[in-house]
Amino acid sequence: MKGTPLLVLAGTVAGFVGVLSFHTRPASSTALPASGAQPGGARSGHSAASPTSVPATPTAASGAVRSAMGSSVQFGYGVLSVKVTVHGTRITDVSVPAIQTAEPTSQQINAQAIPMLRSEVLSAQNARINGISGATYTSEAYVQSLQAALDKLHVK
Question: DSSP letter at 32?
Fold first, then answer.
């Protein structure tokens, strides 16, 4: 019984060290295609600091196919940017051509969540979608970048 406080202190210190060392791996850049395929060997050539966009014309009624890249958004476990393609005012495609994550677990979560978010956007036809449980930070960053891309395209 005399050693119990020492064990509690040692366990607390070990837990504290474990928490502090949790996110120590360098971020890696992985591209997730619009189809939702698992990230593997494909690496994105896009830098999260310099997203590109196709010039958006304000004539959305023309029915032209246009696309724009949303701003890079930093979230709890990395950085992502969303590319949206519209035909007139209808969202026809959404992809995440540039994503950086801090750890393999985040890559796995994102590989599952991003196709689900894409499906939500294509159904809703706007950025007012439900987030994915277990991927809250990713969902919030996705919506923020998506809305920035839609704003560039003058689509509500």
Answer: E
